[in-house]
Amino acid sequence: DQQVKQNSPSLSVQEGRISILNCDYTNSMFDYFLWYKKYPAEGPTFLISISSIKDKNEDGRFTVFLNKSAKHLSLHIVPSQPGDSAVYFCAASPSGGYNKLIFGAGTRLAVHP
Amino acid sequence: SQTIHQWPATLVQPVGSPLSLECTVEGTSNPNLYWYRQAAGRGLQLLFYSIGIGQISSEVPQNLSASRPQDRQFILSSKKLLLSDSGFYLCAWSGDGNTQYFGPGTRLTVL
Question: Which residues on chain A are in Cβ contact (under 8 Å) with B92?
Answer without folding.
Answer: 43
